[in-house]
Amino acid sequence: MEYFQELKSTKIFDSASEFDCQAMMFCFKTRFKTFDKNENIVTQGNKIEDIILILKGGAIVENIDILGNISIVMQLKKGDVYGIESAYAGDEFYKDSVIASEKCLVLFMNKHRLINPCENKCKRHDAVVKNLMRLVAESNLKLLDKLTHLSKKSTREKLLSYLGLMSERAKSDYFEIPFNLTELANYLSVDRSAMTTELGKMKKEGLIDYDKRQFHIFNNKIKY
Amino acid sequence: MEYFQELKSTKIFDSASEFDCQAMMFCFKTRFKTFDKNENIVTQGNKIEDIILILKGGAIVENIDILGNISIVMQLKKGDVYGIESAYAGDEFYKDSVIASEKCLVLFMNKHRLINPCENKCKRHDAVVKNLMRLVAESNLKLLDKLTHLSKKSTREKLLSYLGLMSERAKSDYFEIPFNLTELANYLSVDRSAMTTELGKMKKEGLIDYDKRQFHIFNNKIKY
DNA sequence: TAAAAAGTGTTGTTTTTACAACAAAAATAT
DNA sequence: ATATTTTTGTTGTAAAAACAACACTTTTTA
To answer: What is this structure's pTM?
Structure first.
């Protein structure tokens, strides 16, 4: 079966057998399609027919609001799914456009077949739904974390909220962050240079120490 | 059956029959419990055994970070569920505490029974899972909206992002928001008085008009 | 209906941030 | 190894926000 290797290594098909994958491909009325860089995979405002799964390459999710402002909602990479929340929430139209940021291979799965109970009794359908649920649940938790940081008013508070969480996750005062500083500023929605300045101050005040992505937070020095 | 009226009016049990509810109560190993104001329903750091559903009253979800800062993550009201994302994401411990903000009635449902396929073949188990998925999906979309607003840097941009979306939803330049101004400032994480000032400026500049919760946005006047 | 509470609008001051422009260091590509 | 690009650090200035304090209005409660 074509693309079986790509399929089984995704979180949602999660090591399913080739036979089971084949059955699901039929059940979900899937089709594979490749896109070149900058091609639209999904177009904002179009009717939601499919949930998409990125099998190779990457894409960005872009939204245009009523005022015409374009914003990047998120990035999709291998294994990521788009459209599942809207599908379950009962939305009729795609909220965003998905645009290939490089050459990529995409699996389209029929929305109705996916979210409704399987009539074909295809063995792993339930497992896929559970995997999807986990994906959405994880996404939810990530968004909540980000919201916690962004709802702080000052850059310093945002940084401490983020670094504190990272430290907590690492169960250590020493930890590495998954961003470079430019990306971190972007993630926290603050000006990069202002953030660097603030990090510098915090270092000088002895609250934190850092080098590149390596951080050391002096939790004891941070007043409650 | 006790509390059947409360159960069937929730989104997750969604008009299930009394018989089906009864079966699910057994299947999910549920128990009902009432709490007085300020009592802990769930305690941060404790092992996740149950998913909770608020049947009467309301509660707040509160988080204490590693630095000791307490923040209100969200509010729960009748019909709301807590713990489902963490359960599906495989977390072991509750991320937050849930505290009754008034006298309330809570349903505890066993996490494992709920998220794993039903062995009792109880008729509506799948439907409940689908309803849960819709809940989580909707929550996801709400969080994404809020993030869109919060990631704008200025108060004006935050307001326009929010009001623009509300207008889009209402399919009209005239719409009513579900917050009073104090709540809106809180939602957008900006200072209330600064927000009022900004709203005043925008009104003076002819971008918007408003009275209490009634807004009129002049989309044509907003430059792209 | 009176009193209390909640919500809204305004102002001035202080603090913080965004922004722009640039320099230097580090990483990557050729 | 050298050139190019990316990342990081610094500064000054202008703009914006937070904060605090208060007056006024509306809504809720007793």
So the answer is: 0.93
